[in-house]
Design brief:
This is Lipoprotein. This protein has one domain. It has 2 helices and 8 strands; from the N terminus they run αββββαββββ. Strands 4-3-7-6 form a 4-stranded mixed β-sheet, with no helix packed on it. A two-stranded antiparallel sheet has the order 1-8.
């Protein structure tokens, strides 16, 4: 019985330690580069028309809102968006694709982002 109390205590301490860090799970945020906009980009998705040739359907989460748009995947990370906090822009392969920030965020992070895909 005593070992069960010790185990319960240890698990509680481990849970508190894991939950106590505000930086745990923090990711960089996507931001539109200066002068860029998604206003004219065609909406896309499973039940919507396909993107014009040369463009890919990608989901970008900007200011907490996910938007699926037809964009040039070769230029999305270099010309359309950037990531905060020293993180890098990546495109996850799926349909629609997901534009995300990866790496350790050092400033201007989004701690509300779930680490699940």
């Amino acid at each position: 019985m005593r070992w069960m109390r010790m185990l319960g205590c240890c698990l509680t301490v481990m849970t508190l330690a894991a939950c106590g860090s505000n930086d745990e799970g923090a990711q960089g945020r996507l931001k539109l580069r200066e002068g860029q906009s998604l206003d004219l980009a065609q909406e896309c998705g499973v039940d919507l028309p396909q993107c014009p040739q040369g463009l890919s359907c990608l989901v970008l989460k900007l200011d907490g809102v996910s938007k699926a748009r037809c964009v040039d995947d070769a230029k999305v990370c270099s010309e359309l968006v950037s990531c905060t906090g020293g993180t890098e822009c990546n495109i996850l392969t799926s349909y629609p694709g997901q534009v995300t920030c990866s790496g350790t965020c050092t400033s201007d992070c989004d701690s509300s982002v779930s680490s699940s895909p």
